[in-house]
Amino acid sequence: MNVEDIVKGIEKGNKRALARAITYVENEYPEGKEIMKKIYHRTGNAHVIGITGFPGVGKSTTVSKLIQKFREKGKKVGVVAVDPGSPFTGGALLGDRLRMEGYDVSKNLWVDPGVFFRSMSSRGKAGGLAAKTGDVTRLLDAFGFDVIIVETVGAGQSEVDIVEVADTTIVVMMPEMGDEIQINKAGILEIGDIYVVNKADLGGAEKTVKWLKSMIMMDQEAVEILSKTSHADEVRVESGEIFERMKKGKDWIPPVVVTVADKGEGIGELVSSIEGHFEYLKNTGKLMERRVRRLSREVFDLIMDEIRQILAGNDRIDFRNHIERVVKGEIDPHSTAEDIVEELLRLGCR
Amino acid sequence: MDRKIRVLVAKVGLDGHDRGAKVVARFLRDAGFEVIYTGLHRTPEEVAMAAVQEDVDVVGISLHSGAHLTLVPKVMKYIEEFGGDLNELVVIVGGIVPADDIDKLKEMGVDEVFIPGTPIEKIIDYIKAKVPEKKRTGEKV
């Protein structure tokens, strides 16, 4: 399939064209870049939801239940699930798809025409995503999915790249995951727009909810609402109260949703929170703000890539000679870098 | 970046034995492939749709139930129905397959059949040789 076939295929809703486009983008073929340029005008409509959290907390199960709920609402759902690749062999066992159980024989999500599921290896990239996850969500967006769910690598404490891709970030935890100091660390525990305490049937959920709420309370004015209660089973009521405040234009206060994902408990509340957050982003202009921030960074990174390529392919700048002078101690690395940039600008780059 | 070979390891039908499939998946992972494992009890439609959406190079179907002559052609039929191209996909069957049926499967378009006792290197070498041979138009592997 060539670029034209693929772009037309995506416009016509051909899943194989979409699948092949992802392959091209993922492998950084020149065709991938061409496809991305040609489909960009079709993007910007989907709600991109990121799901992150430590390994084993139930991210995939939560995703499969979310797909079900969104499908019941008639939304088309694209899913990108990222799993780690081996740092030694580059191989990967991508195991998220197998957790996507069919929920209804007639609407089995493996073959549901309104669902597209793609597994990605992180291919050695740190941060919880693969290098091209952002472009892949954009392809799904262009294809016409209403909701795109990105499931990160089972993340440690600093895999926070998801915020560069998602409109709404969900951090999934489970009971008894640590003490208050864990909750107050930076990194994954400060990026959530929504927090989920899954596997609540294991017991100890109340304590985790309490800790999460104390973290959220620290810098929110919702103290008086949130401090009223610490019982997990009352959180749902609180979420409702919080939404009322949202509607009045207050800041977003990340709700803590309690779930037992494999039994489907709490998933309805989670979907309400997700939809509430998207409404909030749109109504307050924060969606635009977030996208400006993300695209600024993306374009900046692309500029740096271009410069890197120009430098690598520019035979008028004798890079080797510059470095040799640094090695001999004739000049320092900072001054050399400045000289090279000046030379590059003077030469007009290409 | 080098293109990674993507392999779907699938269990189809009522067969509940996946120790072999999991071991093969693990070894393929260690050989540097990206392996997508489907889990047990998939229907032919599910496996075919996964193969198309994941854009894999190899579909490996593991069967111990004796239903290979029924289920494997169904998977292949659905792959084509969902827009996949069997000319560029390598289809492998593994598991308990009587000698007489190996030729029948190959006549149906299966590229290779690996029975229990096959050294894992043989499967890895086969995939590494066969994928570029069936490579997609205009692609470098």
TrEMBL record, chain A:
Top-level taxon of the source organism: Archaea
Pfam family, one: MeaB
Keyword presence, 4Fe-4S: no
Keywords linked to the UniProt accession: Chaperone, GTP-binding, Hydrolase, Nucleotide-binding
SUPFAM superfamilies to which the protein is assigned, alphabetical: P-loop containing nucleoside triphosphate hydrolases (SSF52540)
Nucleotide-binding listed as a keyword: yes
Molecular function via GO: GTP binding; GTPase activity
Annotated family: Belongs to the SIMIBI class G3E GTPase family. ArgK/MeaB subfamily.
Cross-referenced NCBIfam families: lao
Annotated PANTHER family: LAO_AO TRANSPORT SYSTEM ATPASE, LYSINE/ARGININE/ORNITHINE TRANSPORT SYSTEM KINASE
Protein name: LAO/AO transport system ATPase
Annotated organism of origin: Geoglobus acetivorans
From TrEMBL, chain B:
Domain B12-binding, chain residue ranges per copy: 4-134
Gene Ontology molecular function: cobalamin binding; isomerase activity; metal ion binding
CDD domains: MM_CoA_mut_B12_BD
Pfam families found in the cross-reference section: B12-binding
Cofactor(s) recorded in Swiss-Prot or TrEMBL: adenosylcob(III)alamin
Keywords for this protein: Cobalamin, Cobalt, Isomerase, Metal-binding
NCBIfam families, A to Z: acid_CoA_mut_C
Annotated protein name in UniProt: Methylmalonyl-CoA mutase, C-terminal domain/subunit
